[in-house]
Design a protein that fits this description.
two-stranded antiparallel ribbon; ten-stranded mixed beta sheet; about 400 residues; 12 strands; about 30% helix
């Protein structure tokens, strides 16, 4: 059993950087990675801005260090790159030293490849070249490939709960540590852009044809993105003597089951998730210094989340911003990517601004932070991740004392 869960490693790749160092540089320079599509084929190629990682699949394979292995999916390569960095960042040289597992999250899985191939599925003359890709379609295949790349054999699990997936993987990993089942878990998620998700969100009419504007009164929708974010969490025993980046002090999940794709207008699910996270952490609302909001830029989500945080924090609203205007909404990976942002906020004593915000929402009293704030004392960060079907999750990251 372990009373505390420590974060000892970070790994990330997204539209604003191929590693933690590049990512922090972009955040500090307040530079967005949302641009037009170069590597993803779509009928909306020149119409929709996205947070695309500017590397081909072949280039990602090389970056992942798996050139000698059979070709895999974009989702998998992104995950391997981020997970390997997290393990290296944590100083892990012997993966078998402690009971180690991996909980990886994704919503896209391997469909970025299989959506190109399904028409030829029954054509035996064509299928021989790519038949192995069929096995990569389901979400768990990427987890197995990531686990193989870092040498984990004993405990693997995959979570797919839409946009709360990575946050739930982090929460699940923490519970495994606290209950003494594992000593160390690599947690987070990975998702790549695909025509399926682009067309699906287009059908829902929630994509902005310009840069997204989270929490702005004139927001028009979200920008999709891709990437991966993983953190290494360890028990007190496993982390002894190591450099601890932060503590995962709280976590909570709820499901308001309001609608298949829409958040409840009153933010009931979001409020319950934050309430549970605070209860686990033993903190009060006034202890939170910064909220890394889910903040997608859609009319319904931002109103729902804005209503929930207003109810939770009232006039004692902490600093708040959404970082999705940097990376785009990376779906199942967003909780992992924003976990990295949250830990960096604590490490750097900084709050990264809410890009593109101009007009206050009339329904809420707060305004998100629009300038880079440095020299802040950031002890506790609340990070929200809300998914389709009303699956809502909240994580609290705290400074190690």
């Amino acid at each position: 059993m372990s009373n505390k869960v420590y974060i000892t490693g970070l790994g990330i790749i997204s539209a604003i950087g191929n590693n933690v160092e590049e990512t922090l540089d972009f955040l500090n320079k307040q530079k967005t990675g949302v641009t037009t599509m170069d590597n993803i084929e779509s009928r909306y190629q020149h119409q929709l801005p996205v947070g695309e990682v500017k590397a081909s699949n072949a280039e990602l394979k090389k970056m992942a260090g798996v050139e000698n292995l059979p070709d895999n999916t974009r989702t998998t390569y992104l995950g391997i790159i981020a997970a390997k960095e997290a393990v290296k960042n944590a100083g892990i040289t012997n993966i078998k030293e402690f009971r180690t597992g991996i909980i990886s999250a994704t919503s896209v899985g391997g469909m970025g490849i299989t959506e190109d191939l399904w028409l030829d599925y029954l054509d035996t003359e064509k299928s021989g070249e790519w038949l192995h890709y069929i096995e990569t379609h389901e979400c768990g295949d990427s987890t197995e490939s990531i686990a193989d790349s870092i040498g984990i054999k004993d405990y693997l699990s995959t979570i797919s709960t839409a946009c709360s997936s990575s946050a739930n993987s982090i929460m699940y990993g923490a519970r495994l540590i606290k209950h003494g089942i594992l000593d160390r878990v690599i947690v987070g998620g990975t998702d790549s852009l695909s025509r399926f998700t682009i067309n699906g969100f287009m059908t829902l009419m929630i994509l902005d044809t310009e840069a997204c504007k989270p929490f702005d009164a004139e927001r028009k929708g979200l920008n999709l993105g891709e990437g991966a974010g993983f953190i290494v969490i360890e028990s007190e025993k496993a982390a002894k003597g190591k450099h601890i980046l932060a503590e995962l002090s709280g976590y909570g999940n709820s499901n308001d089951a309001y609608h298949q794709t829409a958040s409840s207008p009153d933010g009931a699910g979001a409020y319950l998730a934050m309430e549970k996270a605070l209860k686990v952490s033993g903190l009060k609302p006034e202890d939170i210094d910064y909220i890394n909001a889910h903040g997608t830029g859609t009319a319904i989500n931002d109103l729902s989340e804005g209503t929930a945080v207003t109810r939770m924090f009232g006039k004692n609203m902490p600093l708040i911003s959404s970082t999705k205007a940097y990376t785009g909404h990376t779906l199942g990976a967003c909780g992992g990517i924003e976990a990295v942002f949250s830990v960096l906020s604590i490490q750097e004593n900084s709050v990264f601004p809410n890009l593109n915000y101009k007009n206050q929402m009339p329904e809420v009293e707060f305004k998100p932070t629009t300038e880079l704030l440095t020299n802040q004392k950031i002890n506790h960060v609340l990070s929200n991740s809300f998914g389709f079907g009303g699956n809502t999750s909240a994580l609290i990251f705290s400074r190690h004392q």
